[in-house]
Design goal:
The structure is a single chain. By secondary structure, the chain is an alpha+beta fold. The chain is about 30% helix and about 35% strand. It is built from three helices and seven strands; from the N terminus they run H-E-E-E-E-H-E-H-E-E. Helix 1 packs antiparallel against helix 2.
Length: about 140
């Protein structure tokens, strides 16, 4: 894998498009903080947040997802956005890290994610941990 394969991030326009999607869904102003390989979207009191980490063309990792307006399709729309990003840029998978609730585990299963064989466990009838969706 070439060094350029690890430097992939969202463009300013892609970042702005995702910010606007979140603002529309959450009905609150959303800020974006850009790190070396991360984007953190949140409102002023952090009750709405989405943190994405990028490992080049290897994967996009969702490490935090909390929304004010739950069960309104926000995560489904975010997933659709990320899938298109991955397809356009040759990123091979999306990882949702540290799934801790039955609702998020059900979302992952419904959207064709599979539990990571090395970072998940069965607890009280629910598989918790990391979920992976292969894109390419």
């Amino acid at each position: 894998m070439a060094m350029d394969d690890f430097s992939l991030m969202m463009s300013e326009q892609e970042c702005e498009d995702l910010r606007q999607l979140l603002e529309k869904q959450e009905q609150t102003p959303i800020e974006v903080h850009r790190g070396i390989r991360e984007l953190w979207f949140h409102n002023d009191d952090w009750s709405s947040e989405l943190r994405l980490l990028f490992l080049g063309k290897v994967h996009v990792l969702v490490s935090r997802a909390a929304f004010i307006n739950r069960r309104q399709g926000t995560m489904t729309k975010v997933l659709g956005f990320l899938e298109e990003f991955c397809k356009e840029h040759g990123v091979s998978r999306i990882v949702i890290q540290s799934v801790e609730t039955p609702e998020m585990a059900a979302f992952c299963e419904k959207n064709h994610f599979t539990p990571s064989p090395t970072a998940s466990m069965l607890f009280d009838g629910v598989i918790l941990g990391d979920y992976i969706k292969e894109i390419l």
